[in-house]
Amino acid sequence: MNKHIKWIFTQYKANIWFVLIMVLFTLASSAVSIAYPYAFKRMIDLLRDILQNPDRFPTPMLEVNKVIWLFLVIGVAQFITGFYPCVRAVVNLRFEHSLRMLYFKYISGKDFRFFQKFRTGDIVTRLTDDLSDFPKISWFLCSGIFRAFNSFSMILFSLVVMFSINIKLTLLSIAHCH
Question: What backbone phi and psi angles, to 5 degrees, belong to 118?
């Protein structure tokens, strides 16, 4: 296995709790995004059924309150998953710090000839500016991978909801996309 890929897996293992939190936040964020249209569907269907068959609902407000509670739960979940970008930023910073420490350890292990060949200012500049100007590696480790995971989970949750609503229409929609 490539040493760079091995380092990535080492970072994930070292930050396993943050990675698991990111997985949970990603799944919750995707689920909440899909939940709103589904909740509106339930609300509209319920109101239609109450207006068409008022005898079927002796206490219509009880049913409406259930849907309102569903919206409140989704709203609270939306508030909590709103911290998802903040958590992702913290994990990005942790990975960037680990990368800096890796390079610092590498530079610290060099013998005196290395330090005679390169000026101290050049070395410090490369350790600070070059890593700051090139945060793509730490961004990819967290945001890049989890954005792809977020897209995948969003598609998966959308398909689950679509199939639960109407299997034929979902299959036609999928067939029409190709």
Answer: -115, 140
CA distances, 140 to each of 65, 104, 158, 166 (Å): 44, 21, 25, 37
| 71-116 per-position pLDDT tens digit | 999 999 999 988 888 888 888 888 888 888 888 888 888 888 888 8
Number of H helices, E strands in the chain: 10, 0
CA distance 35 to 43: 12
Contact indicator for 100, 131 with CB cutoff of 8 Å: yes
Question: What's the predicted TM-score (pTM) here?
Answer: 0.72
CA angle 30, 95, 85 (to 5 degrees): 30
